[in-house]
Amino acid sequence: MGGASFVAGDWGTSNLRLFLCDAVGTPLDQKSGPGAADVAGPDRAARFAETFDSLTAPWKAANGELPVVLCGMVGSSIGWVQAPYVPCPTLPERIIDACCALRNGAIHIVPGLSCHNRFDAPDFMRGEETQILGALTRIPELRQGTRLLCLPGTHTKWILLNDGVLRDFFTAPSGELYALLAKHSVLVRTPEREDGTDLAAFRTAVARFNHFPNAQLLHRLFECRSRQLSGELAAQSSAAYLSGLIVASDVHGALTTLASAATERSVCLIGTPRLMQLYSLALESHGRATSQLDGAQASLAGLARVQHRLSQHEVAHGS
């Protein structure tokens, strides 16, 4: 492990994760801070700069000025600066050339990706593109054939890769829908179990959804309430049952839309261990194997790839 070489950061809507990295991207130290939504507001550029400088001041004092690469909502309309969207189809590496530079190139912010998806609608991602680049770095075989990727989260992304080219993608607000219904509807009257999702209830919901796969999710959601009233579903399991219906619907819709184009039956999941477990169970119910990569590790690998390419560019141009 070498000395500090650069600072990498994933600055999302709700959270900021900063890493002090060596030359190959191994984290030497890390810090957490407020998300972009908490920093945004009047004179947001100054607020972002102040937040970043405050958190990284000890690193600067110990190591001097280091190059910085950031991804996520920091480059959005509520971020430090609005970075562009690179249109698809594209090689994920193209995001490196489209980075926005701040402070005379000391800080680079990774752009997002855009496409016109298969439902004839515009679609966008910001932050996930860096995770995809990191996944391709960590799992080189993803560059071969036509691959299906899933990044489960608040706004789940389904991505089609063809020989390393990101062809198109679409977004399912599965996590947001779950949060809204679990917290603000009569469908779920008790909080989710503190020790994690009730996997038995989740599996039951997936199986029941798959029994009528062509039914619209809207026509199934009230089961979370009605099965409680009939005594079939315990109140403390209703949140997991709701999750199972939403994830099953998301997976079924994505496979129906994209799976015929994929030459590989395995789906690569990138995200948190808990969400990857749920999506893996739903995918397995369709006979699909999965590979899994932690989202934070993918993001850091992508940021390291960006910084490596930027440093090569600087050397090539003698700067």
Q: How would you classify the helix and strand content by structural class?
A: alpha/beta
Head-to-tail CA distance between termini: 26 Å
What is the CATH-assigned architecture of the largest domain?
2-Layer Sandwich
Uncertain runs? none
Shape: globular
Number of helices: 10
CATH class of the largest domain: Alpha Beta
User: What is the fourth-level CATH superfamily of the largest domain?
Assistant: 2-keto-3-deoxy-galactonokinase, substrate binding domain
The ordered string of helix (H) and strand (E) elements is EEEHHEEHEEEEHEEEHHHHEHEH
Number of strands: 14
Can you walk through the features of this model?
The protein is built from 10 helices and 14 strands. By secondary structure, the chain is α/β, with parallel strands linked by helices. It folds into 2 domains: 6-143 and 298-316, 2-keto-3-deoxy-galactonokinase, substrate binding domain (Nucleotidyltransferase, domain 5), CATH 3.30.420; 172-294, Nucleotidyltransferase, domain 5 (2-Layer Sandwich). It starts with 5 loop residues before the first strand and ends with a helix. The protein has a 6-stranded mixed sheet, with helices on both faces. The protein is globular.
